[in-house]
Structures are given as C-alpha cells and as structure tokens.
Amino acid sequence: MASATRVFGQGHRVLMSAATSSVATATATATAVTTAPKRGRPAGILRVVPVSPALGEFLGVSEVSRTDAVKKVWEYIKHNNLQNPSNKKEILCDAKLKTIVNGKDQVGFLEIAKFLSQHFNKSS
C-alpha cells in the first residue's frame, strides 16, 4: 500500500488541480469571446452603399449592402428558374437580369459577383 501512495499520492492531486484550472481558464476565455462588445457601423461588404440606377431598379432600392444584393439576385434567379437545367453553373438571363449583366444572354454563376461589382460606387 505504501508504494500505491507513492505512485498515485501527490502527483495525482497536482495533475487534477492543473486540469481544473485549465478548464476554468478555457471557460473564461470562451465567455470573453462570446460577450465581446458589438462594433459601431458595419464595414466592408456589409456596409449599405448607393448603387447604380440599373441595379437600383432591379432590386427596388437605391442603397444596399453587397451581401444583400447578391442574395436578392440569387433569389430572383431561383424564383424564375433561370439556371440552365443541364448545366447548373450557367444562368440563362431574361430581360430584367440582362440589365445588370451588360446584356449577356447567359453568364456563369461565378461571374455574377463580377457584374454586380460594376454597379457599386468605388468611392464609398
């Protein structure tokens, strides 16, 4: 029994106290991260900025964030079934969508962001 105390005695308690303190530290860190104060205005692609008249007419607003513009364009594409059924990477443009994609009949789904970037003011 004396050898068991020597093996599991003090070392075991030291390891347990280290584990307990690391769990407390991790919990405190997680709480600090989740309760971080909110920042002021949105920046980058979340900022609401004025758009070109063509995109404004398409979306029905004169100012929008880039993320909302992309969402609304994709909602329009899906609602009107404009994806090519045989190649889902292609969008077949109708008259309304052609106004924001420079009159092209079909565009790739990755090109939509490129065409939308032309409609946002660069100075904002």
Characterize this entry briefly.
With 124 residues, this protein is mainly alpha-helical.
What is the secondary structure topology, with strand pairs?
Elements: H1 2-8, H2 10-34, E1 49-50, H3 53-59, E2 63-64, H4 66-79, E3 90-92, H5 95-98, E4 106-108, H6 111-117
Antiparallel strand pairs: 1-2, 3-4
Helix pairs in contact: 1-2
Pfam families: SWIB (PF02201)
InterPro entries: SWIB_domain, SWIB_MDM2_dom_sf, SWIB_MDM2_domain
Protein name: DM2 domain-containing protein
What features would you describe in this structure?
By secondary structure, the chain is mainly α. It has 2 domains: 2-34; 44-117, Orthogonal Bundle (MDM2), CATH 1.10.245. The chain is 52% helix and 8% strand. It is built from 6 helices and 4 strands; from the N terminus they run H-H-E-H-E-H-E-H-E-H. Strands 1-2 form a two-stranded antiparallel ribbon. The protein has a two-stranded antiparallel sheet with strand order 3-4. The mean pLDDT is 80. Residues 44-122 form the DM2 domain. It comes from Deinandra increscens subsp. villosa. This is DM2 domain-containing protein.
